[in-house]
Amino acid sequence: MNRPTENGSASTSDAPERAGLVLISLILVAAVANLNLSVANVALPDIGKSFDSSQTMLDLIAVAYSLGLAASVLWFGALGDRYGRKLMIVAGMLLSIPACLVAGFAPSSGVLFAARLVGGLSAGMAYPTTLALITALWSGPGRTKSIALWSALGGGIALLGPLIAGALLEHFRWGSVFVITLPLLAIALPMAIKFVPSHISETTEPVDNLGGFLTAALVGSLIVAINFLPVPTEKTAAIVLLVVAAIAAVFFFLRERRTEVPLYDLHVAARPTFWVAACAGIIIFGSLMGAAYVSQQYLQNVLHYSTLEAGAAILPAGIFMVLVAPRSAKLVHSNGSRRTLLTGQGILFLAFLTMLLLWKEGTPYWQVAIPYIFIGIGVGLSGTPSSNSLTGSVPVTRVGMASGTADLQRDLGGALMTSIFGALLTAGYASAMGAALSGTNVTQNTQAQLQLSFASAENVAAHNPAQASQITAAAQSSFLKGDQWAYLAAMIAVLIGMALVFRFFPKKDEETQLRANYHAQDVVGEPGAVPPPAQVPPPEPA
Predict the structure, then answer these.
(1) What CA–CA distance (Å, rounded) separates 493 from 487?
(2) pLDDT by residue (tens digit) across 258-269?
(3) How far apart are CA 196 and CA 131, in angstroms?
(4) DSSP state of 396
(5) Contact (CB, 8 A) for 405 and 276
(6) Whole-prediction pTM
(7) How many CB atoms lie within 10 A of CB 107?
């Protein structure tokens, strides 16, 4: 096929020159964002002790990076489409250097939150742009394979984050986990400058900056509101933020319907290969991140794993994700996105089902590993068709929109599902602990502390050594009942995603035809384009 080069000429190729080095550069850039995203949770207990932070502030620190990413990806993706995707990658990588350093040496929890938020903004520049460039530079089976490698290696590196952070915390202060990406960045930045081509299939249309501001307000206020909702003292703030999110959503919808050059093309987003893939991805990646949040607590609270052991326990998921993703690319081309998505979602359902059935007190590691293996296989299979369907449903000049949506699947989905699963875990734990304490002589104040969280129960046990074993046993039993609520919610969410794909996503032949029709429509819509020849229907049989 004809593909524009840096100087605007055309070359006949399905991949760029030095394709291997270009793809490695883009994967390394994405790896910086993925690694930064996954290292904070392991360090939160040490951060809380260092700053005497409230639980709300710790939650905000944990979500700050995702917040910056999710609020900016659509806007920054459009800016990359207009002014240069390579420019956005380099700018994002440069901005992440001070963000990492300030986070690593932050003098207060507020500064740490701000540094993580800026780090998320830097990732919003660089991370979705990598997928946009893969879509613009590759085509056909090569594009699908490249997306599969990008998805699998990026996800695998993200899963290494807790392991690396846990190992560092064995020897260094909490700030070390925020600077571990600097050596990787020192490799990714010069490779991106040298090997990533510039000015590939960019648009000359103006950027809808008002729409970008509205998306930032919508996503930012929604995520912060979700984190505030479980906190009794922050209910008013949460409600106000939800109102802001609703108003921003209405104005954004009206803006995108009326503006000549929308930031988010609602006509493209209405295509079934786009919106169904987007919804499925939000549920897939959101359920994955929410369940990982709960399962890490299970490993440390119930099975007494150290932070290093808990980080290492999830490695099978990363290994199988990397092994399965290339096979997923082949399945997409042979069986279609719909069947591949449904297969991956079905295996994810098995992952949460085995968590529900196998993860008890004293569970051996081989039974812990089984759900993680299913997670790796499920995400490895379903991640590729989800991202590939998004990018394959838009014109090449709008791939920033598609790649931004692909990133929103993870960040917005993760924030939503983690908050929901966390609330269910908290409610289930409190209910079970309340039932265990009924009929005892425990004071009302102590009962409230015991029902607050597993960590709060541990603090009560530390101050009451004579009853410590009974308190800890009750807390573990209550946690195991609470986490069942979260795993059940994950199973229900995956079933909803499967129903959407089964009902609305086109089968293989129809998907191929729809993509051809979309491509023809998009070519006609480009300036100076020649309409495709009319299709003459065959004569009807006598």
Answers:
(1) 10
(2) 887 777 778 777
(3) 12
(4) G
(5) no
(6) 0.73
(7) 9
